[in-house]
Amino acid sequence: MRGLAEYAMSGRLQAATVAVLFGLIPGFSMVSGAVVALVILRRGLQDGSQILLWALLPAGLQWLLGDPSSVFVLLGVVLAGVVLRNTQSWQFTSLLIALAGIALQSSLPLQQNYLAHTKEVMDTLVANGLQLPVEVDGKVVTATSDQMVAAMLQFYGGYQVVMMLGCMLLGRYWQALLYNPGGFREEFYNLRFDWRLMSALLIVVALGVYGVSPLNEWLMMLCVVPILNGLAVVHSVVAKRRMGMTMLVLAYLVLMIAAPAFVLLGFVDSLVDIRKRLDKPTN
User: Fold this and answer.
1) Interval 49-87: pLDDT, tens
2) What's the predicted TM-score (pTM) here?
3) Secondary structure of the chain in the HEC alphabet?
4) Hey, where are the domains in the chain?
């Protein structure tokens, strides 16, 4: 990864090449966005905008094929990159990303072409034998294509948030790797969000959990902030206690199967500073 980052930062043509090539490879578009983030974080918006234009070529092609997600991710990365460069605050950056995800989730009724494309893809998959169970009135039945589409669209904004945040984290990691070795580790280990922000966010999330609309539709996006805080706690504690990579793997498995545990951890840490308490010497 270091070699790729060094190559991308060796010149504008090289950065554009990486952004375009990885944008064309299915499943690797996050690398394209990370290059845009890296250039903005290191050189500023003017240089980053030029790489963005190249990265938009494969993303725009995907939009023409019916999926605008990559374009929205890249635009979100530009905004987040500018905020992080100017404020050096992951709190503001992650909050912006969460709000961008909420805006995109709320914009779905306006994206009729994307909705039609998703419905067409799902109809094709069902016609080719795809079957997924769904519970209706207490009975488990095979989901229709419309039910599958509705389920997928619930994760639309959340997917955009994960991609934007992933691009920013990778870009920041590359920046530290090339120009400030160890800086990303220190920054992430010390990441902790303001208790006042988290208290307000906790109230909003609680209302969403209890079904208050439209907050219940925004839970995935709202929870990205406490989850990021929770991940910082885990990484910091594992490193300081020298628990090894196995504990981190287990932690990420927990994140995948029980994400609310990390949401709770993030909220608790913002209020009581778990890392500071664990660092206190015991008598």
Assistant:
1) 999 999 999 999 999 988 899 999 999 999 999 999 999
2) 0.91
3) CHHHHHHHCCCHHHHHHHHHHHHHCCCCHHHHHHHHHHHHHHHCHHHHHHHHHHHHHHHHHHHHCCCCHHHHHHHHHHHHHHHHHHHCCHHHHHHHHHHHHHHHHHCHHHCHHHHHHHHHHHHHHHHCCCCCEEEECCEEEECCHHHHHHHHHCCHHHHHHHHHHHHHHHHHHHHHHHHCCCHHHHHHHCCCCCHHHHHHHHHHHHHHHCCCCCHHHCHHHHCHHHHHHHHHHHHHHHHHCCCCHHHHHHHHHHHHHCHHHHHHHHHHHHHHCHHHHHHCCCC
4) 1-110+157-189, 190-283
